[in-house]
Amino acid sequence: MPFDHVLITGASAGLGAALAVECAGPGVTLHLSARDSARLEATAAVCRAKGARVHPVSLDVRDAAGMAAWVSGAGQLDLVIANAGIGSGTGDAFESDAAARAIFDTNVTGVLNTALPAIAAMAAQGPDADGLRGRIAVIASLAAFVAGPTAPAYCASKSAVQRWAEARDATERKRGIRLHAICPGFIRTAITARNDFPMPGLMEPEVAARLTLAGIAAGRLRVSYPRHLYAMSRLTGALPPGWRNRLLMRFPAKKAEDA
Ligand SMILES: NC(=O)c1ccc[n+]([C@@H]2O[C@H](COP(=O)([O-])OP(=O)(O)OC[C@H]3O[C@@H](n4cnc5c(N)ncnc54)[C@H](OP(=O)(O)O)[C@@H]3O)[C@@H](O)[C@H]2O)c1
């Protein structure tokens, strides 16, 4: 992959860990964060074994000051991936107040805590031969396109960051900074492990990481996969909201988790 200096949040597990390993190689510097330092160190060890220089740091994306200090102190950054996120559903009941707030804090504010200092850092670093100063990828979801009644905060949080990244790209690209909204379908990670319903197109994190990085390298503003589920999400999202809620309430709900 053509990225030598990469920063990734939520790199201790799942998609974030797979992205780190996929980026790793000789000559590559990785700045990795998550809260669980032991699991993060395990990712770092795999990346070092592939020849990368790795700087892991235990950090919560909700810590705005800590994130700003980390991102701005990382030096050259070719690619920043705001990946850390949590998910929860209603189960057979309601979305709790605590879950709704925790999801927005991590999935929206945490993404801004990553992307805003990254934009500032990239604006201050020199452009490459193509005039590009850096790329920022926000991990949204196909859930961004459907206001799913069994995961209200999760869908809304993903919609917020997908729309923010796509819109902000229009002005940032004028000064050589690109943003990318990554919209995956189901990936086999801790977030989906508790789903006890069929997950069409379920993919391994390594496959999702490769699709994500290939889309970013190709310069695509929206990187969505798998195609058939993206089409289904757009169609479902386009239904009148009352119809959509009645339809989606027929499906099993994602379980509530300790958010
Ligand atoms: N799995 C899917 O089907 C799927 C589909 C579409 C999009 N996504 C998105 O992909 C991203 C990665 O999710 P995943 O499926 O790989 O889940 P995961 O295996 O649970 O990984 C989540 C990562 O985020 C980190 N994290 C969570 N809260 C954090 C916080 N407050 N501060 C710092 N790091 C935090 C976790 O590390 P610590 O616990 O160590 O902090 C972990 O490394 C999320 O944004 C998710 O919404 C997932």
Mean pLDDT: 95
Contiguous uncertain segments of 5+ residues: none
Number of strands: 7
**Helix and strand element order:** EHEHEHEHEHEHHEHH
State the shape.
globular
Largest sheet: 7 strands, parallel
Element layout with pairings:
Layout: E1 5-9, H1 14-23, E2 29-34, H2 37-49, E3 53-58, H3 64-72, E4 79-82, H4 97-124, E5 134-139, H5 152-172, E6 177-184, H6 190-193, H7 205-217, E7 222-225, H8 227-237, H9 241-248
Parallel strand pairs: 1-2, 1-4, 2-3, 4-5, 5-6, 6-7
Bound molecules: NADP nicotinamide-adenine-dinucleotide phosphate.
The site of NADP nicotinamide-adenine-dinucleotide phosphate has 31 residues, from α1, α4 and α6.
Keyphrases for this structure?
seven-stranded parallel β-sheet; binds NADP nicotinamide-adenine-dinucleotide phosphate; 7 strands; 259 residues
